[in-house]
Amino acid sequence: MKFSHIAAIAISVVLPAALWAGEGSIKGNVKYNGDPPAPKVITVAAEKQGDCKHDKIESEELVVDKETKGIKWAMVRVMGVKAAPAPAPAAEPSVEQKGCHFTPHVVIVAPTSNLTILNGDKVAHNFHTTPLDATNPGFNRMMTAADEKLVMKGEKYFGEPEVIKMQCDVHPWMNGFIVCHDPPSQRSRTTRATSRSKAFRPENTTW
C-alpha cells in the first residue's frame, strides 16, 4: 500500500444494491498490508524551527501500529445510506496546536459547525486551510503567542462537505486534515489506542 502527499487515508464504503433495503450496523478495521514502515522523521533546519525549537519531528503522514497493523487517522465514509439525524454535539470540535503538532491530526466537522483552533504552545502560529475541492473558502490567520484561540465560523468555511488541508506556514512540518462531513456515516481513528483495539462502527444506518 503506497501513499504520497495525502496524510489521511480516506475509504468510502458503497453498499451493494442487494443490501439497499434494511437497516443495521457496519464494523470494520483499516490495516496496513505488509510490514509496517518505520516512522518517518523530519529534520528541521534551525532557521525554520521558529519558537518551537524542534530539530527532529516524527511525521504523522502514515502511522501504523506495529502489533495490529492498524492505521492511525484513517477516515471511513459510508456512501448511499440514510441515517437518523445526528444528535447535537456536546461541544464544538477543536484542534490544539501543542508541541508544534495539530491534535488531532484529522478532525471531523459537521457542515456549518464552528471549529475552534487552540494555541497551547503559546508561540506564534499561522493557521492556513486549503479546501481540496475548492468548494469552501480557504482560511488564513496569524496567531500570536498571546492568542489562546480563534474560531472558524462553520456557516462561512464549512458550508459544504469537503476534505480540507490545514497547515502552519510558520512551522512547515505542521499539517493535518479537516473532514467536513455528516458525522453519522463517518468515523476517524484518532488515537494510537483506537488503532490497536477498536473498529469503526457507524450505527443505526438505513439502506
Task: Give me a quick take on this structure.
With 207 residues, the chain is mainly beta. It contains 2 helices and 17 strands.
Overview of this protein structure:
This protein is mainly β. It has one domain: Immunoglobulin-like (Sandwich). 5% of the residues lie in helices and 34% in strands. It is built from two helices and 17 strands. The strands form five sheets. Strands 9-15-14-11-12 form a five-stranded mixed sheet, with no helix packed on it. Strand 14 and strand 15 form a beta hairpin. The longest helix is centred in the C-terminal third of the chain and has 6 residues. It is flat. The two termini are 30 Å apart. The N terminus and C terminus are likely disordered.
Name the features.
207 residues, 5-stranded mixed beta sheet, mainly beta, Immunoglobulin-like, disordered C terminus, 5% helix, 4-stranded mixed beta sheet
Give a topology summary.
Blueprint: E1 10-14, E2 23-24, E3 41-43, E4 56-58, E5 75-79, E6 82-83, E7 94-98, E8 101-103, E9 106-109, E10 115-118, E11 125-131, E12 139-143, E13 149-152, H1 154-157, E14 162-168, E15 175-180, E16 186-188, H2 192-197, E17 205-206
Parallel strand pairs: 1-5, 7-10, 9-15
Antiparallel strand pairs: 2-17, 3-4, 5-16, 6-17, 7-8, 10-13, 11-12, 11-14, 14-15
The percent of residues in helical segments reads under 10%
Strand order of the largest sheet: 9-15-14-11-12
Biggest sheet overview: 5 strands, mixed
From the N-terminal CA to the C-terminal CA, the straight-line distance is 30 Å
Shape: flat
